[in-house]
What does this fold into?
Amino acid sequence: MPRYWKERYAGARYDDNPPEPLPPPARGLVIQELMCVNVCSFTFKFYSDDEIREYIAFFEKKTHPSSTLPIPEGSDSFFRWHSQRWYERLPMYLQEESKRVKVLKALRKALALSEAGKLRT
It folds into this structure.
């Protein structure tokens, strides 16, 4: 059964930074929250409703095009992982049909809860 909640942003989400980081003096003044969805033993964390919509669009597709990216000229092949897209970091088991359907249903419900303002801390 999926779980939905909000949590305070603590500075890192999957070892990255928020899309628009606040300047250091404002970080303590503005409360930033992440919307969390735990489904199929995986916790998704979102900054905005638009980000949830992007994940929904991804999981609505049963097959995906090749994820190979061209390596820019002059770059070292050691740093290929910098070219990774967000969906390439998701566990592959989430794309199995049975789990994909569950994830899609949970993300749609999370979006509805978020838009209605019913996600709780």
The mean pLDDT is 80. The chain has three helices and three strands.
